[in-house]
Structures are given as structure tokens and as C-alpha cells.
Here is the input.
Amino acid sequence: MILLDLFLTFFRIGAFTFGGGYAMLPLVQQEVEHHGWMSKEQLVNFIAVSESTPGPFAVNVSTYVGAVTGGLPGAFAATLGVVLPSFLIILIIAKFYERFRKATAVESAMRGLRPAVVGLIGASVWSIGREVFFRERIEQADFAAPQLYLSLGIFALAIYLSFGRHLHPVKIILISAACGIAAGVAGLL
Here is the structure.
């Protein structure tokens, strides 16, 4: 039963997510919490790990949730569920590419989906940021915590390196990980 549950849940997520893995985070978080498959903290920790591992974010997250919930068969069921909708949609689009490409309705739908994707990504940033920095509720003491300012500093550094220096994203991830490790060793995290 759990394998079918994992497959159907991630199939739904894969079918109704436009914009990649970050846009699917609110759906994954809601479903994982609804089913009680893992805590919000476990999910947030894996999201951090998933960012530094190779492969598509959506596949990494679904595989992890499936593995934690149903072992190797669960990982397979969840991964197949999240990948299958995109695969089927691409097959259909490839078959009718010319007709889809020029259709006004399709172009209009895509223009309408872009703001929704940005909103979903923003909701993910807010939800994960709130969980990482404030846990249950925002209190004044949270603004005195060094973790908040260290994380904001790493975020600002990543923005600067990405846009100011045009540094490759892999190097930014490695630098950010090194900063986090150094802060952890120094007792700041």
C-alpha cells in the first residue's frame, strides 16, 4: 500500500508542478507532512543535502522521501511517480510539436504559469527560511542568533559571487558549504 501511495503522491506532484524542483517544494512539503512520512526538520535538512548532490532536485527529493518511507522499493516508486508525468508530457508534445508551439492557448497558458512558478518558489523560500531560522514562531531573540546573520552573509556572498563575479554555481555551492562547515566547527551553527 505504501508503494502505491508514494507513486500516486509523487505522480500528482510531478503532473502539477511547472518550473522545476523548487516550484514543487510546497507540494512535497504539504504531502510529506500530511502523510506523516517525515518531520519538517528532516525534509529541510535533506533539501540542503539535495542541493549539493548531483541530479535533478525533484528526483533527489522524491527518491529520498521514498527511501525513508519504503526503502529501496519506495525510492523507486516515488522516483518513477515524479518522473513519469514529465516523460509522458514530453512524448505527447514531441508528437504534436508544431501544432502545440504555435497555438495561442498554449503560449498564453505558459505566460500565465510563469508568475505562478515565481510565487511557488517564493513560498518555498519563505517556508524553508522560516523553518530554518524561526522554528515555531518569530521572537525577538531570533534576531540575536548568529545563525541568522551568518546565513544572510552566506546568501549575500552567493548573490555577489553569482552576479558580481559570475562564478560557476558549483564553486558557489562549495564555498557556501565550506563557510557552513567553518561556522559549525567554530560553534556558530
Summary: The radius of gyration is 19 Å. Residues 2-137 form one domain.
